[in-house]
Here is the input.
Amino acid sequence: MLPVVAFPFEDFYIDTHHMVHRLAPREQQILFYLGLLAAALGIGGIRAVLCPMGAYSLQAYDQHQLLSFFNWFYWLVNLNSTVVFLGIAYIQQSVAQNLGFLIPFTSVLLALIAIHMTRSKLTFKPRKGGSLLTTLGVFLNSLKMCCLHRRHLSGEVVSWLDRAKENNGGRYSEIHVENVKVLTKLFPLYGLQLLYRACVTQIPSGFYIQAMNSNLHLDVLLLPIGAMNVISILPLLLLAPLVELVTTCFVSTGKSPLAPHKLITLGHACAALSVLGAGVSEMWRRLHPLVEQTLSGKVLQVSSMPCFHLAPQYVLLGVAEALVTPACSLISFQLTPNHIRGISLHFLTLSYGGGCFLGAFILQLVHAISGDFYPNSLQDGNLEGFFFILATLMAVNTLLFWRVSCRYEDLSQRGEALTCSPLTEKLRRYKATLRFYDAIEPAV
Here is the structure.
């Protein structure tokens, strides 16, 4: 919808004829937000299924190969983002705004045609019992049985989820419940990614406003604001091959590479330092005198500080993304049984989207307490205060993850034993014991 919505927002030319839109501001806003909602739904659907779809074929791979897959997967995603921010952003800002909408519309249309042509190779049928409805059903049935237990039922269980088992009066088999219990152990990992994602979303929000109010001129060239995003993507494009090389060297020499949970802790620390640096750079930006700068036909009063002074905070967030995202995907995939590995990655993607809402909630809360963080003129605001608050919260979040990261240290158990019931496992041990005793010859 956005290519269609873009035209009524401003006057435009068809050949030599000057056209003026006749839409009221309210109708413009309705069309604009409908377009944004459609784009958000499309992006959310793609991100929710793209990585699990590729990971379904990795069931027999080891930890090093899985980390390599996730590294190169996100490397390709960010390579695409680099082309977008350097090419399309420049076209939209300096050539034609509506053409900037038309290019992604055409590319998505071509992608849909390509997916339709190869749909037979992209279809995957998950194993029975590995659906999202089954997983959610275990939670709901456990809550229902816990409520009944307080009124009518008796007996104690180890976990409240055990109430959903058939032998405890629930509706689900022991295999399904045990798999969901493993998934719940990853909830602290998902929850502690929320604040981290709130820091990452400062690139298109708080950092974007900082760049827009800084000097974007490079000699005579006016840089697109999206070019600053490339500074955060370059560390990932450089670090992903470097991490792959270092990990391969460690594996070939028999040494253990840095554990994924340590990479996540280091990445969270980089995110906290990035937001802290953003607050310092905002204080520095406000000390520079104002100059005039033209953006999209409007003359703005911006700081004379070059936008490249903001580069350290972008670089730190890029390093954090290179460390955190592949490691989180690896842990989510490796520590869950085969049946629900795709669902585990779905929950991880959900935590990323939840971080965007958390960032917006923190911003609204801070704005309600003190409304001068995002004024009409950023020169009169206190944006650095918001960054310092977010940096403090992220530092606490990093310490919390460091305390709970020990449970994600051992990735050698891939969850295969949980695809069978504990009773079956006991029978296997019993048979193994019988074979052991049969192997002992009686003494003469």
Notes: The beta strands are 12-14, 17-19, 217-218, 221-222, 290-295, 298-303. Confidence is low (pLDDT under 50) at residues 11-16, 414-422. The longest helix spans residues 63-95.
